Amino acid sequence: MSNLSTKVKLYLEANSKTWNDTKVTLQNNSDGNGDFISSWDYDIAQPTAEQIASYETAGNAAEANAGIDATRQTQYLSWQQQMEMIYKDQKNGTTTFKDHCDKVRSDNPKG
Length: 111
Fold this sequence. Notes:
The chain has helices at residues 4-14, 49-53, 56-75, 79-92, 96-107, and strands at residues 24-28, 35-40. It contains five helices and two strands, in the order αββαααα.
């Protein structure tokens, strides 16, 4: 189940808006009812529960892809290591950097 914040961000993007912490506040009262929108200051209507629910599948995909992106980011190595691979590839006519990037992507495919 995707987070309310993810679904609200998707709703905003679908309406050509971006997340702004000063315009929307999410809250959880720890009463078992879960997260909810406690304040809304956009020039579009606050999404209904049904509208938020319609973003569940997209929210799950976005969160899964964010996890994959985080994993890929660490596996791509530092920019210094990447530059070293590129330099050696250009010097030796090899494809080490491309092969490395292809392996990171194939080991961590997006849905």
